Structures are given as structure tokens and as C-alpha cells.
Amino acid sequence: MPVVDKLARARQIFHSLTLFNLAQRYSKAYLVIVTLTALVGYLYLLMFPAGALFGIYQFYLTVTAPFTDQTILTALTWASVTLFCAGITHGIATIRFAQPEGIQLKRENAQLIFNKLEEIEEQIKWPKIHNVILSRRFELNILKTPVWSLPFWSHNTLVIGYPFMQTLAPEYFDCALNRKLLQYAKRQNLFYNWLSYLRTTWEHYPDTFKQRNKVGDQLSYWFFRVYCRFYRYLAVYVTQTDELHADSLALNYLNDRDVFKTAEYIRLVQFFLNQHFWPKLNELLARGTVTPEQIKPYEHLSKSTLQMMKSPRVSHWLKMLSLENACEGSHEAPFAKRMHSMGYGKMIAPNVYNTTAAQYYFGPGNKQIVQRMNMVWARHVSRDLAKVRTKTKASNTALAQQRLTVAF
């Protein structure tokens, strides 16, 4: 076989073994692999208590057996194993997880949002939501924070991104909220939903172990740091499938045209923010002419999005979305698949509204929330910039020391 044909064959085999092709061509095998990988996290958490109990049992058998030359060494070995496993078990059992960051919403400052949640709850029964917060990101999600070390019971937080409310009309926001709560209600596809939520649930562990940093926490930190990254990468297409299931479920309860236009509008705003709005702010910060406190992004976000939706570029972006057949590495399902699953063959030009969900739901208090969210954004960005400067300074110092070493 010629060398060129061998290389082509090798590339073909490698492509067929990629995660995307595995999920598409061998979906059952892929699902088994993801499930077994999801159970590895539970196995790690249960391994040390089991090891401590087994060590106690073996120590008891050793000290009650007839004495030999190896008795003391064996007893000390099992005692060491027991103490090690008991120490790690204590560290795992006493861990407590931080709640998601953001501004907590209560009835007195978000009465209409809570009224909307009660209105939806009359139609959809879902597990209890313990907290509602407003975040600085473009998102609408329900985060499960484990109550105990084993992720069987969770503290459930509805996270509403303020940019999400600033860029969506009330009608689109209501539809997106209904869809998310329907997905969370778990009336269908429980298995996919569980595997999908574990992608964010496991991420609590490395951060918490690193912040606490007690004796024995380093082992758990490094395990979950590697494990979480691998599981998040592996289970990405399970999450995409769960999103497609959520679309199908929403179509059973909501107007199909509203569901489609909401999904379409959200993806357009995502594209605008990721490709234009945030990069421009990053350019301003990179120049060093302004501080994070001076930028105040949430004062301009609504107006910028409205202008974007009225621009001719929207038709081009819609065409790009309609051709999106793969989102490798992203939890977002390809929009062409979503469009097909909803029964639509072409894109629909979204309606442009002058009133945003933030203006509608917060009313006169929205100006105060804009100020608070600008402060939250500036604080986080300043902290991130400080970390970057620290790393850069450390790198420059190491480089200078290396040059001195070479020079001498």
C-alpha cells in the first residue's frame, strides 16, 4: 500500500474514533462509557470508607489469630491502611460546598419573577428550588450544589444571568424559563438529565478541596481536577442530547413557534456577545486606558443588542446557524439539529422588542440593579486581571533568573 494511502487510512481511522463520531455512530457504547465514567466519582468517594472498614476487619483478624513472626508487621500495615483511609474519609465527610455567586433575589426586589415562578409551578411540578440568584454571565440554569459529600441530595439554585434578562424580551425570557423548568422537572429522560447535571455537580469538588486545603485534601483535589475535566469533555454529547430532549418536552407544553424563535434569538445574542461585545471590552482593558470600574458594561448591553438585531448582519448569522450541524466540545446542541427536531426547515427573522425582561421584571429598580451588577462585574474582572499580572510577573522573574544563570 502506498505511503499516501496509509496516511489517508490512518486519518480516516483516527477521525472515526473521535468522541463526536463515537457518540453519533455508536451511541449505546458511548452512553455506557459515560455512565461508567460517571460512577467513578461515586466509587472514589465510597472507596475510602470501604477501605477503612476493610482495614479494621483485617486488623481484627490479624490480632486475634495465633501469633507469628509476621503478626506485628501485618497488624501495623493494616493499622496504617485503616488510619489513612479514615483520614481521607473524614476529609470527604466534612466537606461543605459554597453556594453559587451572585445577587440573591427575594420577593421584595423581584416580586414579578417570583409571581412568574408560582404561575409556572401551577402547571409544572418540579423539585424545590431553594434559591434564586442573579449572575453576571449570559445564562439561565439550575445548579445543584451537593448538601453532603455524596451528590445524592442537592441544594438547588435557579441562576438567572443578568445579561440574559437585559438582551431578551419578556416573551422570550418567559419561554426560556418555562423550558428550563420543564427540563428540570425530570418528567422524561431521567437518565440523560442525571448524566448531564453531573458535569456541573462534580466541578464543585476540586474547587472546594483546593480552597479548604487541609491534610489529605490534596489527593482528592488532584483526583477530581483530572476526573472533572475528563468527564466534562466526555459527557458533552450527553448534554447536547439532553438539550434536544428539553426542546421536545417544551413543544408539548408551549407554542412551538415561540420555542423555536426563543432558541433562535438566544443563539443570536450568544454569537453577538462572544464575537463582538465582550471582545471589544477586552480590547479596552488590554489597552490599559480604562479601569474595569469605568467600563460599566450593563449600561450599554441592552442598547448594543437592540442595534445588532436591527443590523443586516443578522440574516447572515441566521444562515450560519441553520447550517450548524456539529458543536464539538460545546454543551449546546447544533442548531440545525434543534431546528429539525422542532419541525422547522428554515430560520425565522426574530421580532425586535424595545422592552427587555430586566426592565419588565425589575421595573424602576432595574437602574439600581444595573449599578450593582456593574460593581460585581468590575470586582471579578479586577481579580482576574490581578491573577494574570501575578502570573506574568512570576514568568518574567523566572525568565530573568534563567537568563542570569545562562549568562554566568
Please name the defining characteristics of this protein.
single chain; 408 residues; mainly alpha; 2 domains; 18 helices; 4 strands; 5% strand
Structure in words:
The chain is built from 18 helices and 4 strands. The chain is mostly helical and 408 residues long. Helix content is 70%, strand content 5%. It has 2 domains: 91 residues, no CATH class; 264 residues, no CATH class. It is globular and about 85 Å long. It starts with a helix and ends with a helix. Strands 1-2-4-3 form a 4-stranded mixed sheet.
Q: How do you describe this structure in short?
A:
The protein has 408 residues and is mostly helical.
Beta-strand share of residues: 5-15%
- CA(first)-CA(last) distance: 55 Å
Helix content: 55-70%
For the largest beta-sheet, the strand count, sense and barrel status come to:
4 strands, mixed
Strand order of the largest sheet: 1-2-4-3
Could you say which overall geometry the principal axes of the C-alpha atoms support?
Answer: globular
How many domain units?
2
How many DSSP-defined strands?
Answer: 4
Number of helices: 18
Question: Structural class per helix/strand content?
Answer: mainly alpha
Compute the average pLDDT. Answer: 84
Unreliable parts: 11-16, 398-408
Give me the Rg, rounded. Answer: 26 Å
Order of helices and strands: HHHHEHEEEHHHHHHHHHHHHH
Write the layout of secondary structure elements.
Elements: H1 3-16, H2 19-25, H3 27-64, H4 71-93, E1 103-104, H5 111-123, E2 131-135, E3 140-146, E4 154-161, H6 162-167, H7 170-185, H8 190-201, H9 204-212, H10 217-234, H11 236-253, H12 256-287, H13 292-295, H14 301-309, H15 313-322, H16 335-341, H17 357-362, H18 366-407
Parallel strand pairs: 2-4
Antiparallel strand pairs: 1-2, 3-4
